[in-house]
């Protein structure tokens, strides 16, 4: 008879993978680092195999570890769905969620899929607009929740810090040699625009605001045409474009802070559950982006 999986062990395993660190996983699962290490050892003993490759630099999954990861996530998701089906079987209603289109496509899709599996009777309406346009809609109670970039008018529960990167065409863009540098920018008042201009000013780089758009697609079109470089949240960069940086003489840009903001009329369970799902799912992934699995075995107490 095979031993049964302990879901707590699977949760710890997934947390280690997603945070890229035994130390950060211990925070995510509310256990000590030593306890996390022991749980991974116990899981490996049960399976009779190693889940992480051991060396002095990288925290990487073995082939069995990669296989387990897929099943572990499915088991955890099913556990959540079963719990919600029994404990909250009558959750119904409607939530209007506002978010920039690039955040929806790059960050929110898996969250919305999981939420819909947990609460199939909740209707979600998505309003795609830039954060600057969503602020007055939130104040007027036209939307319930906003997954947006934090600024002076938009406050909420912190979810993640998203790096900003310079983006150009995949072949070395000729525009980099131009002086002043042609730059495509988001609309005035946008935090991303302010961070981009501050970075250029701090680095004393001569530039001209060649194009301005409230649309991600509008800015990407200028890069595709070889007319400008742009700065985007890293999660929003299309795969066909190149991420540029210091090697091309471009400066560091302050990251964006993404929050879940709520309207005055969002004090109801459906909004509570969706807001909590966004924070739960995306905060861990943010840690993974911020620091890939590159910590030393001695620092992170990798089980040997």
Automatic annotation (TrEMBL):
What name does UniProt use for this protein?
Answer: Transcriptional regulator, LysR family
Q: Which PANTHER family match?
A: HTH-TYPE TRANSCRIPTIONAL REGULATOR LRHA-RELATED, TRANSCRIPTIONAL REGULATOR
A single GO molecular-function term is: DNA-binding transcription factor activity
Annotated family? Belongs to the LysR transcriptional regulatory family.
Can the keyword Transcription be found in this entry's annotation? yes
Which part of the chain is the HTH lysR-type domain? 5-62
> What SUPFAM superfamilies does the entry give?
Periplasmic binding protein-like II, Winged helix' DNA-binding domain
Any Pfam family from its record, for instance, is HTH_1
Does the record carry DNA-binding as a key word?
yes
Mind telling me which InterPro entries this protein's record contains?
Answer: LTTR (IPR050176), LysR_HTH_N (IPR000847), LysR_subst-bd (IPR005119), WH-like_DNA-bd_sf (IPR036388), WH_DNA-bd_sf (IPR036390)
Q: Which UniProt keywords apply?
A: DNA-binding, Transcription, Transcription regulation
List the PROSITE patterns: HTH_LYSR
